[in-house]
Design goal:
Elements lengths: L16 H10 L7 H8 L5 H14 L2 E2 L11 E2 L1 H8 L9 H13 L17 H12 L16 H13 L3 E4 L2 E6 L1 H22 L1
Length: about 200
């Protein structure tokens, strides 16, 4: 499984429409050149623009140069790029950094015996469960402001809500940071409660 490092600080984690189209064209794993890709993604995209976009995607770690030459002029999708593509439907510009972080988290937590990259990894911390539980207790739609308290700022709550949305535990309404708990989210909460109750019973025996 490939390892990836964080992108350089001067690289903005933002995916414009052309970059998203390029990643979708590369998701089959085949090697492509900027010339071929510019012909596929649209008449409004030049070869030079495509080449620059591919270099930027490579800096982000979403694509790679397959070689054998150091700069072969060809590109293929990386393992991180596969995770990015599979989650593009939950990409939002306002939470682009959190989107990138979630995708890198999925890559970093791949099973050691996995032959191919898995994009369905789900690992939640106590903070995530606390926000998910809080969201389930709100009557109606929930925002970060609804969960703000002395220990959690609105910005922090918004970030965690998006993370739960990324993993399919919350549903976002009309592209705005307004959420409600999904069936999967309710199932995860139920499993969590059973685990906690089981531990309490075990300790009392």
């Amino acid at each position: 499984m490939e390892q990836t490092s964080d992108p350089p600080e001067d690289v903005k984690i933002n995916l414009n429409p052309t970059e998203r189209r390029l990643l979708n064209e590369l998701k089959d794993g085949k090697r492509q050149t900027p010339k071929n890709l510019s012909a596929v993604v649209g008449d409004d995209v030049t070869r030079n623009y495509t080449a620059n976009a591919l270099r930027m995607l490579e800096k982000k770690g979403y694509t790679k140069s397959p070689g054998p030459a150091d700069r072969s002029g060809m590109y293929t999708i990386s393992d991180l790029g596969r995770i990015i593509v599979d989650n593009l439907e939950v990409y939002t510009r306002d939470f682009r950094d959190e989107f990138d972080t979630c995708c890198r988290f999925v890559l970093a937590n791949q099973p050691t015996d996995a032959e191919e990259v898995r994009t369905d990894i789900l690992i939640l911390g106590d903070e995530d469960f606390e926000v998910l539980r809080g969201a389930s207790e709100v009557d109606g739609l929930v925002t970060g402001e609804d969960l703000t308290n002395e220990e959690m700022s609105t910005k922090q709550a918004d970030r965690i809500l998006y993370r739960l949305f990324f993993f399919g535990l919350l549903e976002q309404r009309r592209g705005f940071p307004v959420y409600e708990v999904t069936t999967r989210g309710e199932q995860i909460l139920s499993q969590r409660k059973q685990q906690v109750v089981g531990k309490v019973i075990e300790k009392s025996l």
